[in-house]
Amino acid sequence: MAKRDQENYRKLFEKSYEAKILEGISNILGWDQETMMPEGASAIRGEQLKTMAGLIHKSKTSPDFKEALSNLIDIKNGKIIAKGLSKEQESALKCWRKDYLRDVALPEEFVKNFAKITSEAQVVWRNAKKDNNFKLFAPYLEKIIDLVKQKSRHLSKKGSHPYDALLDEYEPGMTTEDVDSLFKKIKDPIIALLNKIKSKKQVKDDFLHGKFPDSKQVSFSQTLLDDMGYDKAYGRLDFSSHPFSSSSHPTDSRITTRIHPTSLMSNISVILHEGGHALYEMGLDPKEYGSPLGQAVSLGIHESQSRFWETRIGKNKAFWKHYFPLLKKAFPKGLEKIDLDLFYKAINKVEPSFIRVEADEVTYPLHVILRFELEKDLIEGKLKVKDLPKAWNKKMKEYFGITPKNDQEGCLQDVHWSMGAFGYFPTYALGNMYAAQLFETLEKEQPNLEKKLEKGQIAFLKEWLKAKVYRYGRQFESLELLKESTGKPFTEKAYVDYLQKKYKEIYGL
Amino acid sequence: MAKRDQENYRKLFEKSYEAKILEGISNILGWDQETMMPEGASAIRGEQLKTMAGLIHKSKTSPDFKEALSNLIDIKNGKIIAKGLSKEQESALKCWRKDYLRDVALPEEFVKNFAKITSEAQVVWRNAKKDNNFKLFAPYLEKIIDLVKQKSRHLSKKGSHPYDALLDEYEPGMTTEDVDSLFKKIKDPIIALLNKIKSKKQVKDDFLHGKFPDSKQVSFSQTLLDDMGYDKAYGRLDFSSHPFSSSSHPTDSRITTRIHPTSLMSNISVILHEGGHALYEMGLDPKEYGSPLGQAVSLGIHESQSRFWETRIGKNKAFWKHYFPLLKKAFPKGLEKIDLDLFYKAINKVEPSFIRVEADEVTYPLHVILRFELEKDLIEGKLKVKDLPKAWNKKMKEYFGITPKNDQEGCLQDVHWSMGAFGYFPTYALGNMYAAQLFETLEKEQPNLEKKLEKGQIAFLKEWLKAKVYRYGRQFESLELLKESTGKPFTEKAYVDYLQKKYKEIYGL
C-alpha cells in the first residue's frame, strides 16, 4: 500500500516537474528580455512568453495531473488518502492541491484576457508616468480593478474578504485581517519614531554622493558576492534598468544591478538585496526541484532574505568595521576624512521621501502600509480610481508630513497595479518583519555574531539561513516556518524593538 | 471554395506558427547556453532543451496539424486539393507536407534515444579530442552510425541511396548522386590548382600575426556590422568559444565571435561570415514567420550567404581598398609599411593545413570532400570505424600532401559526427559554389560593383540578396532558387572559374 503510494507520489512529482521545467524556461526568457534582448524583439518575446504561460497553465491543470493528485489526496475536502508518506510529503501534497485548485478556478479565457489587458496597461502606465498624466492611466486601472475583483470572485472562499484571495497568491495562508492587525501594531510606533527623528539634527551624508567610477563599483560588488558565498558557477551578475533576481533552477540563479556613477550606496544595497534573493533560490534542494518542497515559501519570506542581507547585514556597524576600510581603499576621494561612525550614521540616515524603493529603514514600511490601505479601499469599492491621487497625497501628508508635487512621484511610481498585482505590496513590509525575528534568533544562537561580522566573516550566514529557511521549501507556510525556525510565534516585536533601539542610538533620542 | 481554402490555409499556418514559436524559444536557450549560462547549469539546460524538443515534435506531428494539412493537400500522394491558392502558397504546402512526413516517420522513442546518445557522445568526443584518444570515441561513433542508419531506413524512399535521406535534412532536394557528381567536377581542377600554387613562391603574411588589442578588434567588428546593414535593434554581438549565429525571429538574430589577440583576420572573417548568416534570417519576411515561406531554404543556401560576405566580399581587393586604410589606422603597428597589394595577397594565402575551419578558399572544399567521401563510406559500410583514422590520413596525404601528426588535428577535429549530423558537411562546399554563381550574377547586374566596393558601399548588397534570396523563403529548393535568381541552371563553373582566375593572378601561375 505504502509502496504503491510512493509510486503514485513519484508520478505526481514527475508531472509537476514538467510544469516547473516550463516555468524555468519562461524565467530565462524573462531574464533575457530585461538584460540582453535587442529592443526590436519585444513583440515576438511577448508571443513567446504568452505561449509559455499557456503551456504552463495547461500542464498544471491537465487531466493527467489531476488524476495523479487524486490518487493521493481527496481534492474536494483535502483529506490525504495515501498511507505511509512522510510529513514533508504530506505538506507537499497540500501545496499541490492548493495550487491546483487555484489554477483550475481561473478559466483559461479569463487568464488570457487578464494577461492581455495588463500587458497593454503596463505600456500605458509607463507613458502616463513619463508624462505625469494620471488621467491616461485611470481608465486602464479601472479595467484592471474590475478584472482583479473578478479574479477574487473566482478564487474566494465563501464569506472571506475579497482581498484575501489576492493576498494568498503572494503570501499563502495570510489573511487581510492578519495583515491589517500587524500593520496597525507597527504604524503608530513607527510614525512616532519618525516624528522624534525629525525633531533632531539631521545626519550628514553628502560624502555618499560624488563620483564613483563604474568599474570600481562593479569590482566591489564582486567582492561582496564572493564573500556572501554567491557561487558564480550557478549564477551571474548583469545590468538592467530595474535590478532583479531571476532563477530557473538552484544551479541557475541570476541577479542584476544598476550602477549610479554618483551614488556610492545604491549598487551595494542592490547587490546585497538581490544576492539575498538569489542565495535563497540557490539553496533550495535540487532533488526537490518540481515539488513544493523545492520552492520558496512566499514573497514575504523571499523578501525577508533580501532585506536580511540588505539592511540587517548591509546597514550594520559591525559589518562595516571590516568593509569600510576596503571601501575607502576603493574610493579614497571624498571618504579619506570620514570615520566609521560618521559613515554608519550616513548610510542609516532617515528622511521622509516620495519614492518607496529609495526609502530608509524607518520610512519604508509606511510606504507599504499606505499602498496596502489604498488598494484594499479600491478593492472594497470605498475608493474610486479618480480619487486615488488625492487619497495618496493625503496619506503621504499624514504619515510622512510631505506632499508629492505630482503623480509621477505619487501614485504613478510603482509598476505593480498596472500588472494587476494587487495583494503584492504587503509582502515588502512582511519581509522586513520576518527578517527581524530571524535576526533576533541569529543573535541568540551566535553570541559571537558581532565579532564575526567585524572580521568580514559573512559566508556562514548562508549556511545558517539554509538550516532555518532554504531547506524546508514550502513544507511550512510563512508563520509556521518562523515558529519552527525561531522557536516562537511570529510577532512584530523584534522588528519594532530593532528600529527603536537602533535609531534611538543614531539620533540620540 | 477558394475562400474556405484560404481559411483552411490560415488554420494550418496558425498551427505551424505555434511550433515555430517553440523553436524560437529553444534557439534562445541554445544561444544562452553558449554565451551567458553559468557553467553549473548545464544539466538543467539539457532537461529544458529536451522538453522543448519534445514539445516541438509533438506540435509538428499533432492530429490537429495533420487535419489542417489534409484539408489542403493529399498527404499520401502530394496532390494539392485546395483551389485558388497562390503559387507561393502551393510551394509552402509542399514543404509542410514534406516536413510532416519526415517528422512522423521518426518514432518518438527513436528521437529521444538519438538525442540521448548524441548528447553523451558529444561529451565523450570532447574528451577524446582533448586527450587525442580516438579509441575513447570509437564505440560511440559506432553506436551513432548504427542510429544514423536506422534513421535513414525510417526516412528513405524505396531504392534510394541510404545517404540521400540524411542529406535531404540539410539540403532538401539534393541527392547523393548530385553531390557526388558536383564534387567530382571540382576536385581535380582544385587539386591541380593547389599543386601549381605549391610550386610557386609562397606569399608573405607574417604581419597578420602580432598583437592586436581586443577592444580595437571589437570596435572594427562594429564598423563592419554597421556598414553591412546589420541592425542592432534586431540582433546583438557576443563572444563564444565557437562563433555562431542564432535566430529566433527576423527581429532577433544574434551572432557571436571570438577574438584572437594575435590574429588580425580571424575576427574579421567571423564577423562577415556570421553577419551574412544573420542578415539572411533578419531578411526573411516576418509576415510569413511560421510558414515555409518565412524560412531559410537549406544549410547550403545559408552557407552561400555567410561565405558570400566572408570570401567574396571580405577577401576582395576592391573591398579592402576602402577598409585597409581604416584597418591601418586602427592597428598601425606592423601594418605601416604594408601596401594594399601585399595585404590582399596575404589574406588570400593558400597553404595546405589540417584544420577545416582555418582553411583558405582553395583548400577548403577539399576538406569538405574528404569528409563527404568518408561519411558516405561509413554509411555504406565500406569503411569500419576502427579504420577511420588511417583512411582520413590517407586522403589528407592524397589531396593536400600532408599527414596529420595525430587524430586531434585529424578525424577528431569536428563536432558533427558526435552530434549524429551525417549529411551536413557537403553543405559547406555547396555554399561556396552557390555563392559563386550568385556573385557572377551580381557582377553582371551591377557593372559599377567594383567602384562601389572601393568606396566602402556594401549596404546595398543586403538589398540585392534580399531580392535574390531572402524574400523567397522556401518557395524554391536550392537549385530552383539559383535558377530563378541567376537566370540559369546551377553549375560548378562560376566557382571553378573564380578560383582559377583569382589565384592565377595572385600566384602568377
UniProtKB/TrEMBL annotation, chains A, B:
It comes from the Bacteria. Keywords: Carboxypeptidase, Hydrolase, Metal-binding, Metalloprotease, Protease, Zinc. The active site is at E274 (proton donor/acceptor). It catalyses: Release of a C-terminal amino acid with broad specificity, except for -Pro. GO terms for biological process: proteolysis. It holds the Pfam family Peptidase_M32. Its cofactor is Zn(2+). Binds 1 zinc ion per subunit. Coiled coil: none annotated. Its EC number is 3.4.17.19. Zn(2+) binds at H273, H277, E303. InterPro entries: Peptidase_M32_Taq. It is an enzyme of class 3 (hydrolase). GO terms for molecular function: metal ion binding; metallocarboxypeptidase activity. Transmembrane segments: none annotated. Belongs to the peptidase M32 family. Broad specificity carboxypetidase that releases amino acids sequentially from the C-terminus, including neutral, aromatic, polar and basic residues. This is Metal-dependent carboxypeptidase. It comes from Candidatus Criblamydia sequanensis CRIB-18.
